[in-house]
C-alpha cells in the first residue's frame, strides 16, 4: 500500500503552544507539510510551551540524537503555594508566608547548581510494574522512588516580584523542573510550585529559529518546506567526515572504509556534494564503520534503471 502524503526530509523547529500535547503538535505539523513520515526528538509537557524539534522522512532516523542533549528553560516559580502535582495541574494543598529577599534566593540557588539528587514525582510517566506513576497517583497510591542524579548547568534569576520567581535553567536529561521548583521552595522555607515553563534551547537548537503552528498555517506549502532545517541539524556537535564520490557510493552500500581516521565514537558523513549520507563510528584502526544511512534518491534511481 502506498503511503499517504509526500516524502519530506528535514527538521522542523516548532514553538509548541501551551496546553497542547507534543503528539498533537506533531500531527498538526505533519498535516501542514503533507509528510509521509514524522517523529519527534523527545516530548514537551502539555503545560509547557517552547522548542520542540520535529523530524520528517530520513531525519526520523536521527530523532534519538537529541534525547541526551541539555535543555534550557525559562521557569516561573510561585513561592508560598504548594500543589499536589508540583505545577498548576494539581490542587492547592498548602500556603505559607514568603519572607525572602533576592539575596536569600541567590544564596539558596547556589546549592542547586552542579550535580544534584532529585526524587521523581508521582505525577510522571515513569512506570512501576507496568503501570505509570501518574495512574497510581490518580488512584491515591504513593510509592517510594529512588533519587536520581541530574546536572544543573545553569540556574540564574531573571526576575523576582510579587512572590513569583523567574529563572533560567540549563539542565541534563531527566531533570524535572517542577521538582526543582518544589525543592527550591522547601529550601527557602515557604514552599513553591511551577507556575509556567518555556523551553528555549535543546542542545545547540534555539527557540529563536523556531516557527509557530499559526505561522505555518499562513504559509504556502513551498514556504513550509523552506523553513525545514537540513538532516544534520540534530548533529552539529559531531565531527564531520567528507568522502570522495567513489567512497560515498561504497559507504552508502554499507561498506567499511579504511581511511586512517582518528578513532571517534560517532561522526557525521558527507559526500563531495556536501550532502550528508549518514552517521558512522571510526574504530581504533581508523576504519569508518557505517551506523545509520540516509536513503539517497540518486542511488535509488540508478539502481532501479
Automatic annotation (TrEMBL):
Top-level enzyme category: isomerase
Enzyme Commission number(s) of this protein: 5.4.99.25
Signal peptide: none
Active-site residues, Swiss-Prot/TrEMBL: 45
The tRNA pseudouridine synthase II TruB subfamily 1 C-terminal domain, residue ranges: 239-294
Domain Pseudouridine synthase II N-terminal: 30-177
Domain tRNA pseudouridylate synthase B C-terminal, residue spans: 178-235
Keyword annotations: Isomerase, tRNA processing
Sections of the chain in a coiled coil: none
Protein origin, superkingdom: Bacteria
Entries under PANTHER family matching the protein: PSEUDOURIDYLATE SYNTHASE TRUB1 (PTHR13767:SF2), TRNA-PSEUDOURIDINE SYNTHASE (PTHR13767)
Family statement: Belongs to the pseudouridine synthase TruB family. Type 1 subfamily.
Protein name in the entry: tRNA pseudouridine synthase B
Species this chain originates from: Parasutterella secunda
Amino acid at each position: 500500500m502506498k503511503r499517504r502524503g509526500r516524502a519530506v526530509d528535514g527538521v522542523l523547529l516548532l514553538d509548541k503552544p501551551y496546553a497542547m500535547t507534543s503528539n498533537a503538535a506533531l500531527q498538526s505539523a505533519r498535516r501542514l507539510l503533507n509528510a509521509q513520515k514524522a517523529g519527534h526528538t523527545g516530548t514537551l509537557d502539555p503545560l509547557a510551551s517552547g522548542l520542540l524539534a520535529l523530524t520528517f522522512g530520513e531525519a526520523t532516523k536521527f530523532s534519538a540524537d537529541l534525547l541526551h542533549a541539555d535543555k534550557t528553560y525559562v521557569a516561573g516559580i510561585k513561592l508560598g503555594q504548594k500543589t499536589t502535582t508540583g505545577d498548576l495541574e494539581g490542587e492547592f494543598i498548602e500556603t505559607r508566608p514568603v519572607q525572602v529577599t533576592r539575596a536569600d534566593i541567590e544564596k539558596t540557588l547556589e546549592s542547586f547548581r552542579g550535580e544534584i539528587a532529585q526524587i521523581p514525582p508521582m505525577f510522571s510517566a515513569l512506570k512501576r510494574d507496568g503501570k505509570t506513576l501518574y495512574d497510581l497517583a490518580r488512584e491515591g497510591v504513593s510509592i517510594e522512588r529512588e533519587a536520581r542524579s541530574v546536572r544543573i548547568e545553569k540556574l540564574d534569576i531573571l526576575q523576582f516580584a510579587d512572590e513569583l520567581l523567574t529563572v533560567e535553567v540549563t539542565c541534563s536529561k531527566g531533570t524535572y523542573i517542577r521538582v526543582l521548583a518544589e525543592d527550591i521552595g522547601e529550601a527557602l522555607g515557604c514552599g513553591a510550585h511551577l507556575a509556567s515553563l518555556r523551553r528555549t534551547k535543546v542542545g545547540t537548537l534555539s527557540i529563536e529559529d523556531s516557527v509557530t503552528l499559526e505561522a505555518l498555517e499562513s504559509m504556502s506549502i513551498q514556504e513550509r518546506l523552506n523553513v525545514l532545517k537540513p538532516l544534520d541539524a540534530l548533529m552539529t556537535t559531531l565531527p564531520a567526515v567528507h568522502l570522495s564520490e567513489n567512497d560515498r557510493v561504497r559507504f552508502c552500500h554499507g561498506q567499511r572504509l579504511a581511511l586512517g581516521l582518528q578513532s571517534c565514537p560517532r561522526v557525521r558523513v558527507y559526500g563531495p556534494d556536501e550532502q550528508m549520507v549518514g552517521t558512522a563510528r571510526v574504530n581504533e584502526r581508523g576504519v569508518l564503520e557505517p551506523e545509520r544511512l540516509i536513503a539517497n534518491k540518486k542511488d535509488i534511481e540508478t539502481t532501479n534503471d
